[in-house]
């Protein structure tokens, strides 16, 4: 009879859930809506019920659930097992680890979604050959995880890695957090779309899409902790993916907006490299799906900014939107090792 | 017969050396000139000879030298024991750990001066009650050490903690490293003095010192790795300490320069807090000697910049210019524990 861990990645809109065995192989996956509008108590009850359901599913399949890992966005105090603050899930000081371990009778780890995603990318994904990795998730917001020797830094209060809220443009737009010039206010997928919409309104352009323009959702991963600028897309709003494609097709306005975002992102990554000195920077989240249109100019811009620092490898994430759930499983397995 | 470690803090101009026992008590200190102009081979020979002399002094005093710790500025690869790059000591890829351990026959640790100073402040000094500490040395340059649970982060290539070289003012002055707008180019002691001199030349002011102006040397600690803007003080140049004093006395130009430095420093510390999330920020180096004239406005400016982050304690360093040497001793003691 094989051992598995139960893993849940709880986001503002949905939960990605899995049963994962001790070798990291995914045995079963499920998705459930979060329905955060029902309030935190209802969301907690759903999390616990889903986790119980997964444990039951394991037993039914002849598997033994041995531990539980849950990751949530926002500020998460891993050491105390408390979801300190998560605006879009509605959590404030929820002792989720204890609630879950009591309900399921399993050793439980509570973690942060982006840090867990970074952990998974560093151990199993695009950073797996590096001892020092910076994982940066760029979607509706921007957040990072600094992973050294397979452990993600949490900070003293569970708030480490807020790369989206470092100053890059003192005279830049005001961020969702209230401060001007944060990286997230310029280089997140939502900021790119918003900036393009603003400039288009000031300077109308043809609305026909150039050939090859995708409509891929770029809101994807990233810390959706509510401090992030939200992804607000009206029916007529051009997405960041479309801005990238229009820039690639040579459209002047899109080129300008995209370049502004890439330059700001390079400044943010250069600051990260100055402080962390990693071997590999892994970019995930929706914006990273822009591929060479992002990575080629970003590598050049980053190289321009590094003087005495070693240049890190800059690579796309390998695990897609499963990274957070895999990271939750890794936290659960780590919990077993230390308990 | 009591055990001691031999500790050397090698700077561009001088070496601070000590014999320190296993309880951290300093049994003997010496200072020697570095004379870096003689070239790296001669500096290495002096380091080895001074270390031998200290070991001999220990024996003569009935003490047993059990390990050696050496810290140098620049980029230091602790894992390989190599001084990778240190402009003002003239080192390039010097395998100093092996050279020293072969010569003295003692387990030897090689470290970075500011990281070692941070280690000492975090374990023994102003950060000793905190698990997560950011030590920031502000002198001729600005550098930082992130210390978690008594270990300073080194980075993948020995270059972590370069807080002086993060972007804070995209349209700011060009830094010694070649990039515009680095924190160090605005908020280091040398940058404050330089900026004041520039503006004074443009707008001459009375040269009489207001009452209470000190002439304390503010170049002090800080990463003197040569990438830093150098401390250049002509006979007529007003020091950063004097700028701080004139600002406190209400002089308009000094107030403006001091405020610019404090605001930039607050931006840099806010970025550090967003990424590291520490309990305590310890400020060392010469500029921190400005006392309340620095700490009061800096605390306010930092608080203004923190939105969802926890505010760290902001405190002056406690160990003065002995911190690097104490850190070297701690690295030597750590080496004994793990070998």
Automatic annotation (TrEMBL), chains A, B:
Record-linked SUPFAM superfamilies:
Actin-like ATPase domain (SSF53067)
Q: Which family does it belong to?
A: Belongs to the ROK (NagC/XylR) family.
Region ranges (Disordered): 204-230
Low complexity composition bias: which ranges?
A: 206-229
The protein in question is named ROK family protein
Q: Sorted alphabetically, which InterPro entries does this protein's record hold? A: ATPase_NBD, ROK
Q: Which Pfam families match?
A: ROK
């Amino acid at each position: 009879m094989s051992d598995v861990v139960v893993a849940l990645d709880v986001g503002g809109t949905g939960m990605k859930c899995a049963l994962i065995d001790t070798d990291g192989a995914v045995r079963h996956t499920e998705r459930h809506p979060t329905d955060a509008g029902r309030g935190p108590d209802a969301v907690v009850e759903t999390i616990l019920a889903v986790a119980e359901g997964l444990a039951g599913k394991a037993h039914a399949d002849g598997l033994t659930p041995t531990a539980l890992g849950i990751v949530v966005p926002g500020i998460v105090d891993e050491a105390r097992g408390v979801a300190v603050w998560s605006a879009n899930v509605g959590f404030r000081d929820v002792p989720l680890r204890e609630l879950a371990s009591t309900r399921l009778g399993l050793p439980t780890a509570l973690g942060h979604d982006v840090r867990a995603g970074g952990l998974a990318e560093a151990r199993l994904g695009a950073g797996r050959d590096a001892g020092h990795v910076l994982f940066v998730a760029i979607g509706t917001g921007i957040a990072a995880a600094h992973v050294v020797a397979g452990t993600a830094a949490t900070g003293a209060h569970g708030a480490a890695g807020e790369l989206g809220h470092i100053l890059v443009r003192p005279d830049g737009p005001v961020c969702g957090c209230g401060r001007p010039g944060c990286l997230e206010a310029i280089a997140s997928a939502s900021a790119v779309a918003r900036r393009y919409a603003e400039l288009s309104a000031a300077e109308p352009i043809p609305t026909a899409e150039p050939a090859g323009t995708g409509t891929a959702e770029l809101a994807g991963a990233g810390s959706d902790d509510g401090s992030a600028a939200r992804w607000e897309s009206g029916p007529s709003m051009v997405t960041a993916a479309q801005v990238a494609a229009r820039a690639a097709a040579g459209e002047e306005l899109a080129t300008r907006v995209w370049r502004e975002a890439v330059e700001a992102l390079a400044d943010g990554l250069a600051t990260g490299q100055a402080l962390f000195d990693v071997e590999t920077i892994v970019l995930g989240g929706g914006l990273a799906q822009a591929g060479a249109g992002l990575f080629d100019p970003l590598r050049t811009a980053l190289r321009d900014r590094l003087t005495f620092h070693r240049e890190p490898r800059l690579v796309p994430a390998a695990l897609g939107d499963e990274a957070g759930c895999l990271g939750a499983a890794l936290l659960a397995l780590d919990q077993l090792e230390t308990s």
